[in-house]
Amino acid sequence: WIPEALYEGKNKGALEREVVFRLAQQYFGMAAGNDPAQAPWLSVSVPEMLYYQYIEAREGYDNMLGQLNEDCLSALVMTLPGGYSVDSPLAAFYDSADFEIVVRHRGAAALYQIREGMGTENFLAGLREFYEVYNGRIAGLQEFVSAFNAVSDRAWDMLIVDWFYTIDEYQGTTTSFFQ
Predict the structure, then answer these.
(1) Among residues 101, 123, 102, which one has the least CA distance to residue 112?
(2) What are phi and psi of 45, to 5 degrees?
(3) Digits of tens for pLDDT over the chain (179 positions)?
(4) Which terminal Cβ of the chain has fewer Cβ within 10 Å, N or C?
(5) d(Cα 114, Cα 154) in Å, to the nearest integer?
(6) Are 134 and 30 in contact (CB under 8 A)?
(7) How far apart are CA 72 and CA 85, in angstroms?
(8) DSSP 173
(9) Which residues contact 111 (CB under 8 A, 6 or more apart)?
(10) Residue 18 — left, alpha, or beta (φ > 0 → left; ψ -120 to 50 → alpha)?
(11) Could you tell me the maximum CA-CA distance found in the chain, to the nearest angstrom?
């Protein structure tokens, strides 16, 4: 089901976005970590970040960064009750809006920061490793970290875990953009 509004005027890009996100979600959401009730970030945050990778490949880094800022910045500074983290289980969320803010947008922002910390090449190699090793198996944050460690001569545990659990520290700040 695709709403007609996505075909018209200024919303035309929304259709492309939704198709790219849903295709990535279909593939990556079911390839590994296929327990969306316990680890929804694997089927939502990763495809959202891959959407930004798509924008970067198609339109360049500055356009990707502009889109990331437009989509995610307000989600970072918004205060939500409940103590949610990017890897909270689905049942922890009170409503779908909170889920979108935390898992889709804060999750993508955390993955962007991880990518920036380790470099695009290492980030993509880590994703490939994760999905090759855990294809068809239940996996979570620890397996995700292990895959990134396996493709690099550095340990990424601290960076990845830090971003997943401290992305909420932006709440109430005056953060104005990613750069």
Answers:
(1) 123
(2) -65, -45
(3) 556 666 666 666 777 888 888 888 888 776 766 677 788 888 888 999 999 999 999 999 999 999 998 888 887 777 666 777 788 888 888 888 888 888 888 889 889 988 998 899 999 999 999 989 988 888 888 899 999 999 988 888 888 887 777 755 555 444 455 55
(4) N
(5) 13
(6) no
(7) 15
(8) S
(9) 45, 46, 48, 49, 123, 163
(10) alpha
(11) 49
Amino acid at 170: Y
By C-alpha distance, which of 164, 33, 25 is closest to 86? Answer: 164
Q: Quick one: pLDDT at residue 37?
A: 79
**The pTM is what?**
0.82
- From the number of C-beta atoms within 10 Å of its C-beta (0-12, 13-18, 19+), residue 79 rates as exposed
